[in-house]
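User: Can you recover a sequence for this backbone? Please restate the input before giving your answer.

Assistant: Of course. Working from this structure:
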């Protein structure tokens, strides 16, 4: 061809984009843009806090006196979806406030659109309820209450006096979801196997046995949420001090062990691991709370909130071990390194 760069001895011009596929026509993805987009969603969903969720279901199953099973896995999946729905809905509801106080957040910075965040919240809520329904009607009922609490908190209760109580209720229900889903699926399996399947009224006492553990986790959540209301402006000494007293009381209550019925061989492991898990819980939550009480600046208050969120993992492990399942407690504690690694990349607050 006359004038062709190749015939004239010149180097062919590089194509405007790299080619892929057999036809060589598809542009390669913009990797920096893709990474930035993924990071924006990771910040929106606060993925570093996501690892605090699976322990709720495991602690609930243990407190109900059951080993983890299919229902526990379904509860974990439902909890993860509902938790992330709450994160997306939280930033959607706070988009105008964040534009002033936190302009770097994904929505006010323009990295995630408000419509996309709201749609994600709706889709994740539906997915969570669908997973819970696979574990049976009792689990779906608990999950529905959890979803309603999450939406009520983000849209209405967050900036009221009921905000901390709503968050505490959500965590309490999340642990109860693990207990209920585990019990419901085990009852269904027993029925299909020809054994006498327990009725709903018969399984209720076993699930309700998880209530003390759920209330302990809820109390911790209440304390952390109360402190978080001051993480932008700081200035509160009384709230971190009250939270510190609450954390100490929770630790003392968890250490009051009653031997697991019918499993005396686990007692030595419980006596060994329960104090270790409780000490980890107290160290993770109490130390930053003390710093925030002594110097209630926004950075130290935010650290106290982050520490309180991460402290849920050793608390879940302690509650699991207290119920006579120390091995499951160790599995929960295995999430701690992952939580620390993610916290260095994405803030949990």
């Amino acid at each position: 061809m006359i004038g062709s760069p190749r015939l004239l001895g010149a180097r062919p011009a590089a194509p405007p984009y790299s080619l892929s596929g057999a036809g060589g026509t598809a542009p390669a993805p913009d990797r920096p843009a893709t990474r930035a987009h993924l990071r924006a969603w990771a910040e929106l969903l606060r993925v570093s806090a996501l690892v605090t969720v699976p322990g709720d279901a495991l602690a609930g199953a243990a407190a109900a006196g059951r080993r983890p099973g299919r229902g526990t896995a379904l509860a974990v999946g439902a909890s993860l979806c509902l938790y992330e729905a709450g994160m997306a809905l939280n930033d959607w509801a706070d988009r105008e406030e964040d534009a002033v106080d936190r302009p770097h957040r994904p929505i006010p910075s323009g990295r995630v659109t408000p419509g996309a965040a709201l749609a994600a919240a709706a889709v994740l809520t539906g997915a969570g309820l669908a997973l819970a329904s696979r574990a049976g009607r009792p689990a779906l009922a608990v999950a529905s209450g959890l979803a309603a609490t999450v939406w009520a908190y983000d849209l209405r209760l967050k900036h009221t006096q009921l905000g901390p109580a709503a968050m505490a209720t959500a965590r309490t229900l999340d642990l109860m979801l693990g207990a209920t889903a585990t019990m419901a699926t085990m009852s269904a399996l027993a029925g299909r196997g020809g054994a006498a399947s327990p009725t709903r009224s018969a399984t209720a006492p076993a699930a309700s046995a998880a209530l003390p553990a759920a209330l302990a986790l809820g109390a911790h959540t209440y304390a952390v949420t109360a402190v978080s209301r001051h993480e932008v402006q700081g200035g509160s000494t009384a709230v971190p001090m009250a939270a510190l007293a609450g954390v100490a009381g929770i630790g003392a209550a968890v250490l009051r062990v009653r031997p697991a019925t019918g499993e005396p061989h686990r007692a030595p492991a419980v006596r060994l691991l329960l104090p270790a898990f409780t000490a980890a819980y107290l160290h993770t939550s109490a130390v930053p709370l003390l710093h925030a009480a002594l110097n209630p600046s926004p950075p130290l208050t935010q650290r106290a909130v982050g520490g309180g969120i991460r402290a849920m993992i050793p608390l879940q492990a302690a509650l699991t071990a207290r119920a006579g399942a120390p091995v499951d407690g160790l599995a929960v504690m295995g999430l701690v390194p992952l939580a620390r690694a993610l916290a260095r990349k994405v803030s949990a607050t």
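That completes the design. The first strand starts at residue 19 and ends at 20.
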